[in-house]
TrEMBL record:
<dbReference type="Pfam" id="PF13290">
    <property type="entry name" value="CHB_HEX_C_1"/>
</dbReference>
<comment type="similarity">
    <text>Belongs to the peptidase M14 family.</text>
</comment>
<dbReference type="InterPro" id="IPR000834">
    <property type="entry name" value="Peptidase_M14"/>
</dbReference>
<keyword id="KW-0862">Zinc</keyword>
<feature type="domain" description="Peptidase M14">
    <location>
        <begin position="378"/>
        <end position="710"/>
    </location>
</feature>
<keyword id="KW-0645">Protease</keyword>
<feature type="region of interest" description="Disordered">
    <location>
        <begin position="27"/>
        <end position="50"/>
    </location>
</feature>
<dbReference type="InterPro" id="IPR059177">
    <property type="entry name" value="GH29D-like_dom"/>
</dbReference>
<keyword id="KW-0732">Signal</keyword>
<feature type="signal peptide">
    <location>
        <begin position="1"/>
        <end position="29"/>
    </location>
</feature>
<feature type="active site" description="Proton donor/acceptor">
    <location>
        <position position="668"/>
    </location>
</feature>
<keyword id="KW-0482">Metalloprotease</keyword>
<keyword id="KW-0378">Hydrolase</keyword>
<protein>
    <submittedName>
        <fullName>Chitobiase/beta-hexosaminidase C-terminal domain-containing protein</fullName>
    </submittedName>
</protein>
<dbReference type="Pfam" id="PF00246">
    <property type="entry name" value="Peptidase_M14"/>
</dbReference>
Amino acid sequence: MRRRQRRIAFVALPALVAGVLVASGPAGADPTGSTATGGPGLSQPEDRDQARPVHIKLAGADMLDRVVAAGFDLEHGLKRVPTGIEGEAVVTAEQITQLKAIGVEVLGDDAGFAWSDQADGGIQGAAARAVQPSTHEATVRIARADWFTTKGQGFLYVEARTTEGQQAEPVVEMQLENDSGKGTPFGFARTMSRFVDSGQYMFHRNLFKLDARPNRIQVTSSTGGVATGAVSDWLEDAPPPLTANPSYKSDFVDGYRHPQQLYSRAKEIARQYPDIAEIIYLPNQTNGYQRKAQATIGGTGQEAVVVSSAAWGHEGGNDVTVEFVDRPGADLPLAVEVAGKAVRVLLAKDASGALASTANHVAEALRTQSQGLIDRAHPYRTNAGTGIVAPTAGPVALTDFLDQKRAGAPAGEVPRGPVTIPVLRIGKHRDGKKPGVLIQAQDHAREWVPATTSLESAERLVHNYRSDRETKKIVENTDVFFILSNNPDGANYSFYNFASQRKNMTNHCPDATADPGQRNSWGVDLNRNYRVGSGHDGYAGGSTSCVSGTYQGPEELSEPESKNIIWLVGKYSNIKFMMSVHSNGGQLFWQPGAYIADGRITTPRPPLGDEAFYWQSAARILSQVKAHRETVVTPENVGGSSDVLYSSAGNVREDLYYTYGIYAFGWEVGGSVYNPATGDWQGGSFQPEWAGNPELVSGHAETMEYANGIMEMFRVAADWGRDRKDPTSRLVPGDGTYRGPVDVRFETSEPATIYYTTDGSRPTLQSPRYAATEFREPGQVFHVTETTTFRWFSVDSAGNIEKNYDPTKNDKRNNYRTATIRIVKR
């Protein structure tokens, strides 16, 4: 039996006005800081130097929601600290003032910031390997205790939960102690940080810098609970990466690539290696790197008029001029003259000879009398348009603002018009019989490293296929689909106009936000535009504001880029793995990805077997990242994305997992790197200097180390496709007679989901599933007080069922597992 598709229906809920993470500038604000008055003084596209990243501190999740709802652009890499949330905001000087008015503490410029090694109370880490007391009465549980080393320094990450953590008064404190190695006593007591998200207690957690690896830890609650557990290794003793082979070819990408370069190289690879590569063209064209030509004429007051051409700028809109003309005389009607591409508005005069045309009057005349040259004309933003329009000094030229190149942008004109996105498909057997892996990069335009990381992985596959045994296994046992840039329009805008562009270039904004001063805030966040757990169904993290960085679009799957992904996985049903590659922050995550803020109700959590498979795969992938230069994606940054980062309503991963049964990962590359010289963790950025510091922040180094991880993901998929071995499982302790109640749990030989019964019935796929004790914890413990017979079977991630049992047929073999716990009461 192969893997089943999951189909989960979500009940529609009223939309919540909650935003999470990224936006483009306060709604209604002019991101250029200009009045955009048109003519010779027309504002130019904002360069990255005008909006700079600063380090900020927020009091908590409520303040984070207020900041995002206000439209501010917060970078990835938010960090929970004991006293709130720290992160970065991309802001202008004016916006810093607005942040402070909300209550945000601005700590300084990004250049002087480094994460503390003392982590927070954030929600990150997880654990099928974790240890906990086997007793139903425990008030403290250790979810995980992980040791890792990087750049010569050791760290201990601990995550623990108390059953009394939700109470507000008194706040439960937890103390951690660890030994200094096997046989040594506990000591070195330190306080752990409590983390509450959306009003719900999550757990306590910390990352500690230690000189020696402890063997065991002890966590004590201020309410009296205590738990001890063993310390596990995180990413230690990993096998060497493919690059360890001296003859292995790598390091193909020597700089950032805009979409035209990425697509050109994808097509060239298909031409060079036709036996193992081809191009698939996605059916839905993007909006294109194009905009209507615009001008805001007359300042920003009640007399201002915003004008937009009917034609795209490059198709004639940029040739249109508009002039407001004062004529001598009195009692003159408002009129419009058109000569070629020149539009002259003859302003009305009253009986005394005074100008009498309001902004509303002029806008209406332009819409109806410009002979089709003007598509939209309206008062500025939310103005009533009652002001009297003044004449212009001369004709005002409309522009699409795309003729100006950002300083430092690569040479070459950007093609205008809709784009057909190519998919590079690599595999020796592209007949749908091998497990497919989808690598999707650059949903978010400003994230440049994901594209180079994906391209580097593709280059490694084709260049090493004939010379490297492991690469040959990948190419012959998987079917890989690369979308090197899923947002070509936005990416071009990021390269050539506004470096911080996040969304695509489809403008759904109404008149109030459609003036050119808002042009850097238009577009849809493609990773909020999907159907499962969406903002349209009341989940947090997607905005209804068209100028928010997390604008979810007017409806689910409104954008061609998101439609294309659904088309691809529908047509190629062999796609069983997916990696959506983002930056920056250094997280690797999966489901659940969103929650309803009121009560923190997440989308359904994966079964414990899938969760364990995700963790096992993550350890393999991240071990290969570490092998390049010892970059460690810490366990606090791995797990369900709503637990690791924030709620991201309508993300692609949830749609693919719940609708199509695809193991869908999200990856924030460019994580923090430990700097032994300063003793700090130093974070990356969306567009780190390519050469940079090869040991710290470097686009090149990030590309190479995270390409290692993608290559390992291919090996995970290949192993999955070849897996024909049934899992095994057992009840611990098993069959036997016990004097009094006993605690039992299931164990499996590999990540597997267990279906069980205790009522004497035959287990089926509709039977209860063995679940985690709590999210990010190992399996539940059953407190058995009366004689009970367990009947069960296990199913691994590849769909293999223990003992070849068929839960769909009621045959006579009944070769499921069984164990009876006999309780003899004293």
